[in-house]
Amino acid sequence: MPQIFELPDVGEGLTEAEILAWRVAPGESVRINQVLVEIETAKSVVELPSPYAGTVLELLVPEGRTVEVGTPIIAVGSPEEAASAPAGPGAAGDAGEGAAQPAAAEDSRPLVGSGPKADPVRRRRRVPGPSPTAGTAPAAGPPPEPARPAGWSGRLARGPLGAGLSAGLGGGLGAAQELAGRAARIAEDRGVWRRPRGEEPAGPPPRRPALAKPPVRMAARDLGIDLADVPATGAAGQITKQDLLAHAARLREQGARRAVPADDARIERIPVRGVRKATAQNMVRSAFGAPHASVFVDVDATRTMEFVRRLRASPDYEGVKVTPLLVLAKAVLWAVERHPQVNATWTDEEILVKHFVHLGIAAATPRGLMVPNLKDAQDLSLRELAEGLEQLTTTARAGRTQPADMQNGTITITNIGPLGLDTGTPIINPGEVAIIAFGSIKQKPWVVDGAVVPRWVTTLGGSFDHRVVDGDLAGRFTADVARILEEPALLLD
């Protein structure tokens, strides 16, 4: 009997993935744990091993298609079954949507890479109604609705509420209708009930005034936005500044899409999916959900450059890639130890200060921005930190970072120096409260002991979640990172 392999959840809650490349073909023999397919999730590229041994009967999903977790993607069976199986991906779907997929026997369910097991669906047993007798003609249509009082009072009076009121009032239908009418008017005013079909008013329904603070109302007037159109996420249905800005961004996107002709051959359309889609969602959530405060400082990194040269020449670091990023990473770890509140997570109820550092390194890859992190970086020696940074960036740029390596980061570094940029205002990684941008190191004139001399100078830029990190703490933390770049010997203290 054919075995159906469904797309598993490979990333702790991921809901979909794109089929990048099949490693097998119909008719090919496979063994357990042989790589079947390469998929791209919102976080990384993952190879899926086979939970079955046998012959590939059919590839159920073609390359380039994004499917949800639990979707059947490949069928494996015996060589005899392969002789009568379709040859290409997606062939099963061509026969019609109602075609049933073969199911694996319960005792042969896969133990490897099968993903979460779906809960069984139980359906209520259908009770057949009485069949019409031989001498009775079937009804031509639904029975006529009995006469009823008009409006909501009539509906409520006929329903359970009216029955209860009538019984409680000694069977007086007039009193029941009166009380039911009052309840209907209250429910209608509060938006609980909808009017019955056919009783809608001729004009548009009245719009309730939006709840918003005066600064938000003023900003809405400046943007030309009707607050009644803005979805509210604040307490008691209040519209926040973030709600207004997010709505304005959606309006701009809709306007941009309407302004682009659908048939213009000069416009390239790139589907938003995978890493790009996840990055966009995270950046919007961070930019509009966390109030960013930014600080900048110029740093004389001459002694950092000398320190890097000495490490490269040391036999202890032979074969290890040593860059100024290593010194910055160590400086961030040193400053976090002195100011642990920058290594935290904000929740609506509490601030979670973490006394461990999963140091994130933002890496630009062909697939988009990735932020893998070094787990427990505070426990690494300088050489171990250098090796970890090299492995982290190399794996990310090759697109082989695993989802677990990008989760639970606590603070992030983004190195924009290789791009020739001096500084920037980075967006905080969701779930964190601080990020440091490391600019390029260039020779610039610098005043030393009253004389202008050429020095290696860089600029640090930091963004902080102002709900957790005040301006004073942000300044002291950034200044401590700069102190280490100016004098790496302080790491020996």
UniProtKB/TrEMBL annotation:
Species this protein is from: Kocuria flava
Taxonomy, superkingdom: Bacteria
Official protein name in the record: Dihydrolipoamide acetyltransferase component of pyruvate dehydrogenase complex
Residues annotated as signal peptide: none
PROSITE patterns in UniProt: BIOTINYL_LIPOYL (PS50968), LIPOYL (PS00189), PSBD (PS51826)
Ranges of biased composition (kind: Low complexity): 80-89
EC number: 2.3.1.-
Keywords, alphabetical: Acyltransferase, Lipoyl, Transferase
Cofactor(s) needed for function: (R)-lipoate
Taxonomic lineage from the root: Bacteria, Bacillati, Actinomycetota, Actinomycetes, Micrococcales
UniProt-recorded Gene Ontology molecular function terms: acetyltransferase activity; lipoic acid binding
Gene Ontology CC terms: cytoplasm
Domain Peripheral subunit-binding (PSBD) positions: 211-248
Family: Belongs to the 2-oxoacid dehydrogenase family.
Domain Lipoyl-binding: start-end pairs: 2-77
Region (Disordered) residue spans: 80-156, 190-214
Classification via Pfam families: 2-oxoacid_dh (PF00198), Biotin_lipoyl (PF00364), E3_binding (PF02817)
